[in-house]
Amino acid sequence: MNLTATTTRVLQSVAAFVKPAPAPTRVLVVDDEESVRRFVTRVLRNAGYVVQTAAGGPEALEAIDNGGTFDLVVTDVRMPGMSGPRFVGQLRRQDAQAKVLYLTGYNDQLFDERGNTLWVDEVFLDKPCTVNGLLESVSLLLTGHLEPMATAPTPSMRDVR
User: Fold this and answer.
1) Strand pairing of 26-30 and 100-104?
2) Cα dihedral 84, 131, 43, 39 in deg (nearest 10)
3) Which helix (H) or strand (E) holds 12?
4) Residue 156 pairs with which residues in a beta bridge?
5) What does the alpha-carbon distance between residue 69 and residue 80 come to, in Å, rounded to a whole number?
6) All domains of the chain in start order, with CATH
7) What is the pLDDT, as a whole number, of residue 154?
8) How many CB atoms lie within 10 A of CB 93?
């Protein structure tokens, strides 16, 4: 097909206004409880996020070492072998700007390990949480504001066990 110079210029002008679709937001969910991983994964996938899971800190670090890149990490605090705060400490050596949502029933342990402070891009959400609570926390961390959500029933983690 032979394009005229005018057609080529028109196509280039149109292409300048067409923005590529943004890459999907990738989330790493780290929790030793399978039911929690399933709940968080289902909620986030239904909201359009690409989710990868790990059953603990070492498995999560392996995923990152193998080239996994994530816009957000959702992690439990109390896990066997390596706590969430210790995992995040190691993660920060590779990605100081990582955004982290601690999903925990043990926020006292979180603050004991973190010296009563969190980084700028870290928040915690108490377990059990609701779908809306999880999505609002994720939205606030990723965008700085709440994204509109579809109206749906709001089950909690208790409802999926």
Assistant:
1) unpaired
2) 60
3) helix 5-17
4) 130
5) 24
6) 22-160 (3.40.50.2300)
7) 45
8) 8
Separation CA 100–CA 72 (nearest Å) = 6
87: helix, coil or strand?
A: helix
Sort strands 100-104 and 72-75 into parallel, antiparallel or unpaired: parallel
Say which residue the tokens 């050596």 belong to: 93
pLDDT in tens, the chain (161 residues): 556 777 666 666 656 666 666 778 999 999 999 999 999 999 999 999 999 999 999 999 999 999 999 999 999 999 999 999 999 999 999 898 999 999 988 666 666 666 666 667 888 898 889 999 999 999 999 988 766 544 344 444 555 44
Structure tokens at 58: 């070492």
Q: Amino acid identity of 92?
A: R
Cβ atoms 87, 61 nearer than 8 A: yes
Q: Determine contact, residues 138/109, Cβ cutoff 8 Å.
A: no
Token digits of residue 46: 């239904």
Pairing mode of beta strands 26-30, 72-75: parallel
